[in-house]
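Objective 1b. Sequence-to-structure analysis of LuxR C-terminal-related transcriptional regulator.
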Amino acid sequence: MDTEVNPEHPVSGASVPKRPAPRLPGREPELSRLTSLFPLALGGKAASAVLVGEFGMGKSATLHTAAALAADAGFTVAIATGSRLESHLPGGVARQLADALDEPGTPRPPVSDLCGPAGESEALDLFFRIVREATERGPLFLGIDNVHLADAWSMRCLAYIRHRVLDLPVLIILTTLTGHPPHRDVALLEMAGCTPATITLNGLGDAAAAEILGLAPGELATACREATGGNPYLLNALRPRLLPGADPQELGSSLIGQVLHTRMHEFPHAPAILHAAAILGEDAGFDLLAQLAGVDELDALQAIDTMVRLHLLHNSGRPTLTLPFVRNSVLKDMPRTTRAVNHARAAKLLSETGAPAERVAAHLLEATSIRIPWGVDVLRLSARNAVFSGRPELGARFLRRALEERLTSGRRVAVLLQLAHAEFQVDPPAAAQRVREAVDTIGNRDTAAFIASAMLLSLCGGQDARLAISAAGQIAARLDAGGPDAVWPLLCMTYLAEAGSRLGPPPEFRDFEEQWAPLTDPAAQRSRSALLALDAVRNGDSAQDAVAHFADAMTGDDGELFEQHYFFTLATSVLADEPAHVDRLCRVLDVEREPWDVHVPHGALPTLARGIALQASGDLQRASVHFESLLRRFDERGGTTTCPVGVLCAAKLVECWVDLGRFEAATSLLDRMDFVASQGLFTHTYLLYARGRLRVATGYTRFGFEDLLSCGRRLAHHGMRFPGFVPWRAHAARAALALGQADDAARLAEEDLIASTRWGAARPLGTALTTLGLVREDDEAERALNKAITTLRSSPARLQLATALTELGTLHARHGQSEKAIETLRQAVELSEHCGARPLARRAAEELRSARRALTPAKDNEHGLTRQENRIAVMAAQGLTNREIATALHLTRRTVELHLSGAYRKLGIPGRAELGGALAKSQRGG
């Protein structure tokens, strides 16, 4: 690491002829600092400077260029070069300088006299006389290249003359390697003087690097500069390897690696640490470096310290090699077998320390031809993470490496199917071939069915799901000869995946019915019950039947069916009103293993199921806590906008926030969602529903109404008649009323009532009856709302009950039944506040205040008319008809009639004809 050869400059003592100085790209500032010292020496005063730089930074070239400039300025130039192979020879550097300064024909003692030690003082004085005599002929430029490698005697000579030439025209320039201690017992300052100008040569910039490489400034030149640190020597080594399309971060030179390895032999244990650091790359840590290098920790620490000082390793808690080009060069110099074995050892060490799987797998990739059976699981896990983080090519590399191991038939099928998924992202025909290869590899039926089911569970949807369905279909056909028990679970999972990924109606359920009779396996019978439950839900025929089938499906401990996205969404929608079954569902979903889908955090499904149940019961605060904590975990895995379960969680949270009155938070979350990409049954439908509710709640009623209608159209297109999946009709009817579309509101309310009555569950039916109470008038409205309240009191749906109470109390107040209104609205306020539904609580509270004001007698009459009764009576006395009064006050005619009847009774008159006189008398009496 000591010599930087430049063929344009001499490397031993010689006078440099006067000629134009060669151009050094990017070194103009350093040369300017050196030439700024010329006037001081030319004026008769000594000056000195030290050029410091890493290996290859151009110290020698800069020194020789400065020497050429000094010669042009009238200096006598003498340059000597220290050499690692000559550092043991006494007087080597001093002899080079003496020979360069010696005037031809001048008698002097033999050069060997400079080497002592017999006449040490005489020899030192002789060297000083040679320098002094040279200054008598003119200013002197003394350059010592690689002074850290100079022999001890020469260094003593330099130290001896330094304080004796202070008033002589001498300029001394030394170059030294960063972090390299000088030999023996003379310090650098003793040779250069107490205050030398220290000039550090750093890496070149982009422009200079581009000039050396012969490139135009741009991204490629920048990448090359980053890979080499702007080191000129490394840039020149990189240049011939810079072929079109090459990545500078991946390039290296075996020659550079050999040079570095040789130079490190000067320091104990440094070569082993150098190789270990190159193998470990970004994983390099002190313990791992020492273990991989096979070096005692104290020896490793000393070697690392030396290499940090030489700027080969980063000065940090993770002493990695500083430059990618250096690492690649060391690796290229390493025999392939040695590299492979060391990468295998590194993988094992990292695995034992609990390093991330992908870091272990990166070393397994390089350990080609080495058998590492334990690494297959690591490679598969790393591939899974890579594919779902958008790096399918890397995932495919991991899996192809896994296939090099000796695998059982079952494991080979699993790896081939996983590889098909990775390759499907970039090369669908190759993926299809992988599936066929996996089918041909099947040896164990049960294992193959399990693997295919796992694949169906692990892929989120869209094109990925189509690949899984195709692969499962091929495997099912291969397993069909094993009888219905063998193939049924796989057929069931395939059906669910097909139903959930379609944009249109799901496949015909009757296609599966023919295979039910022969089923004897309990697991197959449970999956049969699950599909019966699903069919009941889709048809919307009977909540009781659907719940019973779900209960049968949950009698075992195998919860894979409930983990399937489509099935999970519908099951939780149905079971939310069944607390006992919710608890059982959460126990089935609460498994110790990680979920099949990489985007779904561990424990996410039971948490989401519990949150849905809490929301259905009206416990909005606790539900939102469940959803928010889960959403943060989906965000960490990048699954909030891509995974169906993540989208479902986000939509449920938006719905919850709307009821809580947190409209800004709901808007912000919806802004993150991709409505174009989310086209599955759960994703887009739930998002449309949540957005429709938010828009209606925030005053964008027309847009919200369209979202809710679109949601309904999609559900109808999917054949989904279950009214509790998303109660879109109830909110669409309210929006239609707000828009003045009473006929549309009535139609939606009637449809909702028919569907909810057929289904038979309390919450959907109570919600439909509440909506019916809004579109009907007077007695019919009151009967519907009373029935809604009775129905909802038998269910845990407290928020829906609070809504029905609010509507009934409002109706009572509108009809002048203030006493009834106050009691009903008081219950509504308490219940809505308990749920945390602030918008509903505010509305109920306002209606309650109005009812109480209406019950208070007007102050300007003595017969105790309420404010509303007095207002209506005055309008009637002025000649307005009941219809006109109802229109003006936004009341029904029936309500106007009730208020007038109360006024007649309190005024003691038979009818409208006597109103004027009775009111006038009342006011005079007041």
